[in-house]
Amino acid sequence: MQCARAWKGVRVWDGRGRGRPRAWMHALEPSKTAVVLIEYQNDFVCEGGKLHDGVKGVMETTGMLGNTMNVVEKARAKGCTIVHAPITFSDDYRELSDEPYGILAGVKEGGAFKASEWGGKICDDLAPQDGDVVVEGKRGLDGFASTNLDFVLRQNNIENVVLGGFLTNCCVESTMRSAYEKGYNVVTLTDCCAALSEEEQKASVEKTYPMFSRPMTSSELLENEL
Length: 226
What we know:
By secondary structure, this protein is an alpha/beta fold. It has a single domain (38-225), classed as Rossmann fold (3-Layer(aba) Sandwich). It is built from nine helices and six strands; from the N terminus they run H-E-H-H-H-E-H-E-H-E-H-E-H-E-H. It has helices at 2-8, 42-45, 52-62, 64-78, 103-110, 149-155, 171-181, 198-212, 218-225; strands at 33-38, 81-85, 133-134, 160-166, 185-194, 214-216. Strands 3-2-1-4-5-6 form a six-stranded parallel β-sheet, with helices on both faces. Helix 8 links the parallel strand 5 (185-194) and strand 6 (214-216). The longest helix has 15 residues, at 64-78. The chain is globular.
């Protein structure tokens, strides 16, 4: 019962201003803000991509690609750091075990995200520009694990991390949790991510995201936070 009462006192961000931490009662400072783009690669984003059919429906429902392009354009102009976090593998997937399980098994079986192929490249619509940072070493779900992401953010004096990408309930969620644990102020863009189904999308953005971030739409970010 004591645990239950303690839990009731925990405030989480509900997307409408309630529960906002006191330190966040102001807009995000662009010079201390990074927009982290997770796996906007051809295999996910584009027709003909090995995993595109799985996310196409939610991409269309949320308009996530166009929304992300708009956020990146405006955030870059305001002085935010744009960080790309692709996942890539060698042709023989030597970075993984001989028999990976879970979602990485599907990646290997489907031949996705090979660094040498078109599918592993960042999509043209969000191609890195001068001043952007491309994270190195992402081989799993969490954008921080096995990469230089934390180093890059801290070297650039980043305090606020804005997340979008694929999959809503996988790599975006894993990166969100780690960013939260590492002490960053985390924003998740609910209309700049996509899952394999509407049910998974809804569960993540409505139930999980508020526990570890401030979920909001791209319009809310641009109108109220930057």
